[in-house]
Amino acid sequence: MKAWMCMNCGWVYDQATGDPMSGIAPGTAWEDVPDDWKCPDCGAEKADFDMEEI
């Protein structure tokens, strides 16, 4: 499985769960997350995330 980790705080975006608190529905592919979305824990930009194999 692939996930995207915030390089600032370690928060992980998982496509299966999305980020409902920010309006990103479960099942939303990383490519479909808006470019202006920010990390819910630290406010980092989407560009500050790196893909990680889990």
From TrEMBL:
Keywords: Electron transport, Iron, Metal-binding, Transport. Its cofactor is Fe(3+). Signal peptide: none annotated. The keyword Iron applies. Pathway: Hydrocarbon metabolism; alkane degradation. InterPro entries: Rubredoxin (IPR024922), Rubredoxin-like_dom (IPR024934), Rubredoxin_dom (IPR024935), Rubredoxin_ET (IPR050526), Rubredoxin_Fe_BS (IPR018527). Binds 1 Fe(3+) ion per subunit. GO terms for molecular function: electron transfer activity; iron ion binding. Fe cation binds at C6, C9, C39, C42. GO terms for biological process: alkane catabolic process. This is Rubredoxin.
